Each structure stands twice: as C-alpha cells, then as structure tokens.
Amino acid sequence: MIIKPKIRGYFCLTAHPEGxxxxxxxxxxxxxxxxxxxxxxxxxxxxxxxxxYGLSSRIAAAFGCHADTLSVCFxxxxxxxxxxxxxxxxxxxxxxxxxxxxxxxxxxxxxxxxDEIKEETVRKIQEKMGQVDLIVYSLASPRRTHPITGTxxxxxxxxxGAPYSGKTLHTDTNQVRPVDIEPASxxxxxxxxxVMGGEDWxxxxxxxxxxxxxxxxxxxxxxxxxxxxxxRPVYRAGTIGKAKEDLERAAKAIDSKLQAIGxxxxxxxxxxxxxxxxxxxxxxxxxxxxxxxxxxxxEIHEGCVEQVQRLFETRLYSEGEVETDDHNIIRLxxxxxxxxxxxxLTDMWKRVNTENLNELADYRGYIDEFLLLFGxxxxxxxxxxxxxxxxxxxx
Length: 395
Description:
Elements: E1 7-8, E2 11-12, H1 17-34, E3 43-47, H2 52-65, E4 68-73, H3 86-100, E5 105-109, H4 115-129, E6 132-137, E7 143-145, E8 152-154, E9 164-170, E10 175-181, H5 186-196, H6 199-210, E11 214-224, H7 239-258, E12 264-269, H8 284-297, H9 304-316, E13 329-331, H10 339-351, H11 357-360, H12 363-372
Parallel strand pairs: 3-4, 3-6, 4-5, 6-11, 11-12, 12-13
Antiparallel strand pairs: 1-2, 7-8, 9-10
Helix pairs in contact: 1-2, 1-3, 2-3, 2-9, 5-7, 6-7, 8-10, 8-12
C-alpha cells in the first residue's frame, strides 16, 4: 500500500508504519543519548502507552531505566484496505526495539476501562513480571463505558458557568476565527468527569493491590495540564478542568493507600504539546502555535520525550523528596509558565489573526508536529513507496 495523509478536521485517518517506527527510534535515541536514569523503575505498567506522553514514558522507562514494560492501549490493526492506527505502529516498533535490547515488552490491546482488560493485565504482570514498581496512567479517551453500571459516558470540551467568546485556529482552512462556545450542562460536566477523571485510575490501583502486584515502594503518576489564561476558559476552568480536579483528588486517595507499602502517587502537570487529544480542543492549536514560537526562540522548547525524561530524572527519581507545588502537583510545565514566556504569549494572543499568523506563531511547526504523530512529514521516508502495512503486534 502507498500511504498518504488523509486529514479530516483535527484528525488524520491514516498512519505510516515506517514513519511511526522512525519516530520511535528518534525518541529511543534521545533517551539513550541522555544516559541512564539512576534509581529508576525496573518493572513498569503504562496505561495508555501507545502515543503521546504514555509512549514516551514507556520509552524512557525501557531505554533510560532498563525496565521491563507492559502497556495497555486500544489501537486498531490494519485491514486489506486501510493502515493500522499510529498507536499500533508505534507499539510494534517499540516492542521490536525493546526486545532486541533485551527487555521484556508486551501490550494488552483493549478497553482499559473494562474489568476484563484489567484482569488480563494483572495476569500478565503475575506471570511475566511478578510485581510492578511504577504505574503511569496516561489515558485519553472521548468516551467510557462504566464497568459496574454499563453506562457509556461521553466527554465534552466546553466552558463551565458562562459562554466563552474568543478566537481559535481552524487548521483545515489555516484561518484564525472567532469562536463562541455555550457552557456545559451539569450532566455534561459529570459525564466528562466520569470519562477523564480519577475513578478509573483508582480502579486500576485497587485491582493491582488486590492481586499483590505492587512492589514495595511502588509509585504511580498520572498526567495533567493546567495551562495559562488564554486556554483557561475552555480547559482548566472548563469541563476538562473539572475532570482534572477529580484526577488530583484521586491522587491524594491513592497516595494515602500506597503509604502502607512505602509508595507514592502524584499528578504531573506537563507542558502543552501536539497530541491527538490536544489538537481536538478549541483554542489550544492556536495557543500551541504561539507557545512553540516563543519557547523555541528562548531555546526551552520540549516535546513529549524531553518532558518525560526530565520528569523521571529530576523529579520522580531524583535524590530526596519529589518536588511539587502547594497542591502536591509535579510541575513540568514550569518553563511554559515562566513569566517572560506568558507575558509574550499574552501580547501575541491579543494581536494574532489570519494575516499575521505565520509571523507571530510557529504554525508550520504545529502542522509538522501534527503530521509526525501519524508518521508523515519526515525527510527520511519515501512516501511514494509501496510498503507492507499489515503488521502484527507482539510478533
């Protein structure tokens, strides 16, 4: 199959296996170049480990900490007429590299919210790893079927309490346009918390605890985003923010329980990056385009793998207690939230429009990063080549 990008709205419907594999190799190379992460984990479970921060966490664990890894994801294989998802190809490439390096690497592909997938994952830990000493929770899903009630809830991206009027970037037309979003209903708020809050993280830890699958001193971390004034109405003060507050609640509850085995639970606030999830949030693509311009000029720009490497080396597994803010959140968004960065961004946000977009923002960088998520836009890949697209996971 000759595979080209097919973009619909904020999502790419195709993925390139060789491009995705090259992306994984680049991340492995970065982690290897940075050197070993001292005192790191050796048996790691990544819940949501096929793309974005979850994938980078798995790579950092394996090639920075020399850890065995088990991942849970929900990806679609290729068919005769269509390629697999990017996460599928990422996982195949990672597992091949990890096994060649001598590490155990396996993936459970299915609905991480379900009891069945939790049970299968626990069995694999018991059979192949015994116990785990780090659990990374990095799920991003638009819906969740509750394992007890059977009810399917859908998340929404809306403000809370009042309508939002501002500007957003339409990536299909390359235009900055006004956007008006009505506030979420109470039901929509509750549904978003159900999908993206902390309950499922708690369920995972309960299942692992009941199966005696947690090693002494086990740590767990979940990822969040806080953001600035520009994104606050539709993010931190919106429905997603309500879900993230619940994630922080869950971290405190889990941390209290893990104290019995000397473990800890934290939420880590990461910087804004281009992911399949962030590209769907109104306002965020424009914000990221401006942010990239500023942070690249100041030489403090980071992607997922750079963020995760810094998280592991300077926070989770550094000497002494883990550095957090007053709310017990690990702040890896510290460079994004620097006063000089946000002051420039606020000024640019007021001035940016369609005509000056490419001058004020790194819009080209945003598009390049978006295409890379799906294995496209690389100079070292021949996208006119007919390639094998049906590749088995776990082969």
